[in-house]
Amino acid sequence: MPQADQNSLSPSAEGPPVPSSAEAAPGTTTNVTSGAPRPAHVRPVPLAELARRLNTAAPQGAEDASATGITHDSRAVRPGDVYAALPGARFHGADFASQAASLGAVAVLTDPAGTERSADTGLPVLTVPDPRGRMGALAAAIYGEPGRDLLQIGITGTSGKTTTAYLVDGGLREAAAKAGELTGLIGTVESRIGDERLKSERTTPEATDLQALFAVMRERGVTAVAMEVSSHALVLGRVDGCVFDVAVFNNLSPEHLDFHPDMEDYFRAKRQLFTRARSRAAVVNIDDEYGQRLVTESEVPVTTFSAEGHPDADWRAQDVEVGPLGSTFVAVGPKEESVRATAPIAGAFNVANALAALTALVAAGIDPQTAADGIAAVPGVPGRLERVDAGQDYLAIVDYAHKPDAVESVLFAIRKVTEGRVHAVLGCGGDRDPHKRTAMGSALARLSDTAVLTSDNPRTEDPLAILATMLAGAAEVPAYDRGTVLLEEDRAAAIRLAVDRAEPGDTVIVLGKGHEQGQDIAGVVRPFDDTFVLREAIRFKQEEAAAAPAATAPAAAAANSTPIQGTDAEDR
């Protein structure tokens, strides 16, 4: 029998292999005691009814048994659960069926390969060719179709899912507050049930956990939910059992090509959300070429939007004013109605995210002004152009940008609001798509006055090998067009290097990890928070400056302001 930490592995929401059927791999941080949130009250569903829904014969022993829950994790089984034993790359979930039985499982859902091993437990076995493909619908049935009682808005795309979800949640909260109701949020950073916050392990939860979360939301009075939907979630069936009232498409650019063989496969995965099986209405960005294509291929009615003000868009942005802390614009609708709107997060690209949220909310039946007011009230998004303020006289920011297009967009946006120089820190994750590393190193060197190349989450790769690839990209930028390039493997030291070079009017920006609270090095996840490390580096510099003799201050300032030929802000 495999040990508890050697379970089969499958791709997670946005990349890394993580446990799919039973136990966590070594070094991962998971809650092994309580599992995902579960509703307090569930009407038992007879196993014979579940067999009928699966279009399979009721197994022996099903006559007097009923289910009150379902999980794919053998550690998280509760009395009354169906245990979904899924095939994996290293092990089969059926290898853990005895553990599930000991914890009170009433049945096993598995494939033919897992049937005999599961039957050895004495539990009734529901056998289907593709248990992962049936798991979502079965979970929805067990929990009483909770999604039908929620207004569901799902957001997909390469960049901006998290920010757009928070902005949609802001509009939903504004509308819900007027009705005395609550809202929910599900995404990369966290899940929210009203004001209760839950840590997220992945962008989109597994189908069993997602349907349980919907049931908890319904039980606690939530009436609407904003949710990120990753391509992994669509391919692996994590949103099976969901039909979104509104599906939003932001954009598509090269990413996750370690999971998708090419961009066409990536697009087809995203397109699944815009079928009648998964949504009722679509909101699509026609400033994006894949969005233009999606308009013609969507199976559900489409409302379009354009932050660039395309006249053919149903909703378009006009009179855009970009500021250091956010942007304002006028959203013009299909009947030439207009509403003053605010993107409460810096960066011109967040106008597109705010307009996407506004359009989705209006498509969901919310008054445009109410939607705009709620979006404007969002205080920020963790790790998305998040300001770190320790009283310094320069701007300090943490952002999640971890792909070439996102790095470029963020740095262009920062350039527009920075009077002085830009000092940027960036690494590339190990065990991920290696093809983007050269482009990311190039973008950082080209668009920063100081480009500090460092580690992200090296995982099982050699950090120096990753840095060598990034450096090769930086070297492709002509010397006259690149900033000073520094290499520092230690991420905390790299952040200190950037802070040490900052002067009044400059910007220090730390890219790649955003909201993440750990760093994975050689399979060990160590606590690491970019915002905390950046704030501490700023404070240390301030303390050093305060302790230094006044006579040495000018010399120190001069040392920190060495001119970089061809890298002034005006040259970019």
Automatic annotation (TrEMBL):
InterPro entries: Mur-like_cat_sf, Mur_ligase_C, Mur_ligase_C_dom_sf, Mur_ligase_cen, Mur_ligase_N, MurE/MurF_N, UDP-N-AcMur-Glu-dNH2Pim_ligase. Meso-2,6-diaminopimelate binds at residues 432, 456-459, 512, 516. GO terms for cellular component: cytoplasm. A motif (Meso-diaminopimelate recognition motif) lies at residues 456-459. Pfam families: Mur_ligase, Mur_ligase_C, Mur_ligase_M. One of its GO terms (molecular function) is magnesium ion binding. Residues 1-11 have a biased composition (Polar residues). Residues 68-142 form the Mur ligase N-terminal catalytic domain. One of its GO terms (biological process) is cell division. The modification N6-carboxylysine is found at residue 270. Transmembrane segments: none annotated. Residues 155-360 form the Mur ligase central domain. ATP binds at residues 157-163. Residues 549-559 have a biased composition (Low complexity). Keywords: ATP-binding, Cell cycle, Cell division, Cell shape, Cell wall biogenesis/degradation, Cytoplasm, Ligase, Magnesium, Nucleotide-binding, Peptidoglycan synthesis. Residues 383-514 form the Mur ligase C-terminal domain. Belongs to the MurCDEF family. MurE subfamily. This is UDP-N-acetylmuramoyl-L-alanyl-D-glutamate--2,6-diaminopimelate ligase.
